[in-house]
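Hi R.,

As promised on Friday, here is the backbone we talked about, encoded as structure tokens. Could you run it through your design pipeline when you get a chance and send me back a sequence?
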């Protein structure tokens, strides 16, 4: 799960970097009235946004999975403590 988290985080950062570069290219292309470069920058923005969206969704899934795993661990731990407590009580009664 940690490798997936690191990979998704890296993809998120890469997507954000692509968007930043695309924004800079877009501004320069608009200033230069170079509509071919405007189109290229727009495609870069789309790809950067797609990468950010996918990475964000993956990070949300990983976070939810971690939460469920933690909740399950806590539940099992509580059940184990209760079981041990009952066993201790039954040994004390004898």
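Update: got your reply. Pasting your designed sequence below so it's all in one thread:
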């Amino acid at each position: 799960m940690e490798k997936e988290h690191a990979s998704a985080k890296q993809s998120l950062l890469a997507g954000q970097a692509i968007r930043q570069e695309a924004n800079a290219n877009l501004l320069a292309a608009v200033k230069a009235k170079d509509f071919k470069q405007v189109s290229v920058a727009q495609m870069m923005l789309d790809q950067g946004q797609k990468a950010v969206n996918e990475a964000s969704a993956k990070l949300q899934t990983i976070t939810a999975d971690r939460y469920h795993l933690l909740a399950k661990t806590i539940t099992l731990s509580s059940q184990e403590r209760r079981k041990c407590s009952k066993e201790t009580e039954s040994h004390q009664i004898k």
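One thing I noticed while checking it: The helical segments are 2-32, 35-93.

Thanks again,
M.
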